[in-house]
């Protein structure tokens, strides 16, 4: 018995390493990319400023670590997004569900370009319809229709979820779904 306790307590060895995936995070300025990623890393969100260039965070989850490269969404940076796509294994696209009609149209164009980009088109997408806490926010169903996701993303692996920085439990669940898709893709690639 003593021997068993000793071995259980002392000879456990380190836990198996979690798989890591490289993910690119895009979306217009103000959509909430840095806020969501900072909250996922348990960092303070009081002094967040618009991202100039890009920022990389290792975001820990129970079953995996996502190395997320956030690309700033300002007009001056947005045009260079595609230069930073190489090596990505998944995509997170964040949009402001309460933005003006004009900005929503720009977000739709950007999402469509990303879905069709040669370096991203085969990757799993997590689309977060953020700012759901605001009264002006469109519902996830409205966003799905407006962004024409069903016809455009048919045959691709994508998830569309509502989100708000006020409910990080739901955000974590959405990322867990993305991790599931990344794992599936990994296994498929391993089988080939
Ligand atoms: N009400 C509300 N505000 C949010 C939400 N997410 C982010 N914000 C606010 O939106 C503002 C912009 O957030 P950021 O995280 O800087 O946006 P970003 O997408 O990183 O912007 P860029 O780095 O410029 O591309 C901040 O003031 C956040 O507090 C949300 O879900 N609800
Ligand atoms: Mg940012």
From TrEMBL:
One of its GO terms (molecular function) is metal ion binding. PROSITE patterns: ARF. One of its GO terms (biological process) is magnesium ion homeostasis. It holds the Pfam family Arf. GTP binds at residues 27-34, 73, 130-133. Belongs to the small GTPase superfamily. Arf family. This is ADP-ribosylation factor-like protein 15. The gene is arl15b.
């Amino acid at each position: 018995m003593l021997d068993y306790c000793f071995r259980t307590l002392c000879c456990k060895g380190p836990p198996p390493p979690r798989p890591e995936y490289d993910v690119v995070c895009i979306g217009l300025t103000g959509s909430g990319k840095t806020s969501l990623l900072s909250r996922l890393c348990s960092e303070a969100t009081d002094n967040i400023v618009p991202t100039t260039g890009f920022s990389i965070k290792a975001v820990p989850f129970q079953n995996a670590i996502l190395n997320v490269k956030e690309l700033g969404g300002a007009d001056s940076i947005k045009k260079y997004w595609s230069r930073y796509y190489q090596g990505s294994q998944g995509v997170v696209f964040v949009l402001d569900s309460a933005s003006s009609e004009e900005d929503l149209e720009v977000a739709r164009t950007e999402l469509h370009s990303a879905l069709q980009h040669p370096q991203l088109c085969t990757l799993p997408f997590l689309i977060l319809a953020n700012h759901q806490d605001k009264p002006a926010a469109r519902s996830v169903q409205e966003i799905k229709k407006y962004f024409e996701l069903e016809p455009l993303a048919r045959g691709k692996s994508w998830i569309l979820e509502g989100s708000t920085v006020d409910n990080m439990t739901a955000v974590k669940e959405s990322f867990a779904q993305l991790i599931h898709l990344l794992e599936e893709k990994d296994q498929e690639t391993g089988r080939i």
